[in-house]
Amino acid sequence: MAKEGLFDQLRNPSGLLGEVAGSVMAQTNKDVNRWVIAQLAVGPQDKVLEIGFGPGAALESVLKVVTHGFVAGIDHSATMEKQAHRRNRRAVHEGRLELQVADVASIPYEDETFDRVYAVNCFEYWQDQEANLEEVKRILKPGGHFFVATQPRWFDDDHAKAEQLGNEMLEKIKEAKFADPRLLKRKFDPITAVMITAYKH
Ligand SMILES: C[S@@+](CC[C@H](N)C(=O)[O-])C[C@H]1O[C@@H](n2cnc3c(N)ncnc32)[C@H](O)[C@@H]1O
C-alpha cells in the first residue's frame, strides 16, 4: 500500500482494509500498549477512558484490572468500534465497557468523569491539539491522570527523532497547563516510544 493510503488507514481505518489495519495494530502495538498500561496503574474501582482505541486490545487488558469501575473508549472510526466490540463483547454485554464512535474534539461524557485517560498512537492525528487537550481536561476529574504515548514508526529507526517528538509533546502538554508533566522514553524495536504523563490540577 502507498504510504499515504497506509497513513489514512491508521488515522481513520475504514472498510475491509481498515479491518486488516486493526488486526495488524493489535499485533504491532502490543509492546507499547503494555508499557502504557503498566504506567496507568489502574485500580479495580477506577473510571478509565481510552481515546483512539483502534482494535480494542489495550481496553481488553485494562478490563482485567478494572473489575468494579467503568471503562469507556471513543474512536472516530466505526470500523474500529466494530472490531473493538467483537474483541470485548462480554465486557460490553456486562455493562463494564462502553464504546462510542466519537471524535476527541467532542468527548461524549460529562465534566470530571474519569480518573484516568490515555491515548496511544493517536495524538499525532488530532486536528486541533490545543482545543483537544482542553477537552481531555474537561472530562478528567481534578487530580485525574492523563497519559499520551506514541511510537513514531514513520521515523523508521531514527531514535533521536522519536526523542525529539517526545520533547515536542511535552511542551504541548505544558502549554495546556497540565500539572507535573513528565516525559518517559522506552527503546523498542524498531523505534523508541515516548509517553507524557500529567495530572489535571
Ligand atoms: C494508529 S491507530 C492506534 C490504535 C491503538 N491505540 C493502538 O495503539 O493500537 C489510531 C486510532 O486513533 C483513532 N483516531 C484518530 N484520530 C482520532 C480522533 N480525532 N478522535 C478519535 N479517534 C481518533 C483512529 O481511528 C485509530 O483507530
Describe the structure.
This protein has helices spanning 3-11, 15-28, 30-40, 57-65, 78-87, 89-93, 129-139, 159-175; strands spanning 47-51, 70-75, 97-101, 114-120, 140-150, 179-186, 193-199. It has 201 residues and is an alpha/beta fold. It has a single domain (3-199), classed as Rossmann fold (3-Layer(aba) Sandwich). The protein has a seven-stranded mixed beta sheet with strand order 3-2-1-4-5-7-6, sandwiched between helices. It starts with a helix and ends with a strand. Residues 10-13, 25, 29, 33, 51-54, 74-77, 80, 103-104, 120-122, 125-126 line the site of S-adenosylmethionine.
Tell me the layout of helices and strands.
Layout: H1 3-11, H2 15-28, H3 30-40, E1 47-51, H4 57-65, E2 70-75, H5 78-87, H6 89-93, E3 97-101, E4 114-120, H7 129-139, E5 140-150, H8 159-175, E6 179-186, E7 193-199
Parallel strand pairs: 1-2, 1-4, 2-3, 4-5
Antiparallel strand pairs: 5-7, 6-7
Helix pairs in contact: 3-4
The protein binds S-adenosylmethionine (SAM).
